[in-house]
Design a protein that fits this description.
Elements: H1 73-80, H2 88-99, H3 103-115, H4 121-133, H5 137-154, H6 164-174, H7 178-191, H8 196-208, H9 212-223, H10 235-249, H11 253-266, H12 271-297
Amino acid sequence: MRFIIRSFLIAALLLLPSLPGTAQVPAQKPVAPSAVPAAAQPAAPSGQTLAPSAPAAASPAPAVQEQTITKDDYQLYLKSGDRNPSWDEYIEPAFTSFDSENFATAGIFLAKAYEKGCRDPLVMFRLGIYRESRRQFKEAAELLSQAADGIAQRYPGHPLNNSIALHAGRALYQIDDYVKALPYLQKALQQNPNDFMILLMLGQIARSGKLYAEARSLFERAIASKPPENVTPNPVRTVLGELIILTYALKDSEACQKYVDMVLSAWPRDPVANTYRTRLDKERFEKKQQEMLDKIVK
């Protein structure tokens, strides 16, 4: 029997390099475990950064997506797992406790097995999710990436194969290890081509590497996808803010105006959109003035 433990998001504001003519995005470290992190609101170009949005409230439960664990996992472990008498006795109570949502108890048994040398992907996945829920992000990233690297070989038919890349990529993204996060997130996108938050994360990684055209493409794909619900800050507003900055930097004034209008129609007081509206209005005015002067000179 597969089950779902409710997933939730954090407000992880990442320090990204400034685009030409813009201020830096304010940085804020993750404060709670998540299925995927929400990105930062882009900064206004005036040299002052926007105040970071309040982070989502922490939850005591690890975030586990649908079809990542099954009731048969312990039997699969007995058949194909990384078994050893030194830690076998801890696995059944670890899995049973985790499946019944007694995460603190599960964490004790999982940690004991890992300390004894167990490197089974199903064990490391559960321990990684638990570490993440305890805000131990570096440890979680290491565990989840190890699980991702070993799951296909040891458990080729397990449903975790369809989501572990996202878990590993998200965990590495949370600790700002974009180089290691990138291949996992790219694989996750292959598995879920229209996932809003994967596109958002990849867009921000591209933006941090100054691949502005690629970042724009990823953010535009995100806008065309279904966003997650009940997330703060609003991820659609976040992506539109990114697109305002990127299209302006890429000198696509028409697209920039379109995204400014989209934001202001929903959030009239948005500082990023208002700042860029002023910039675009000023540029149009100066262009008309120059055209008039050219006619007079001729």
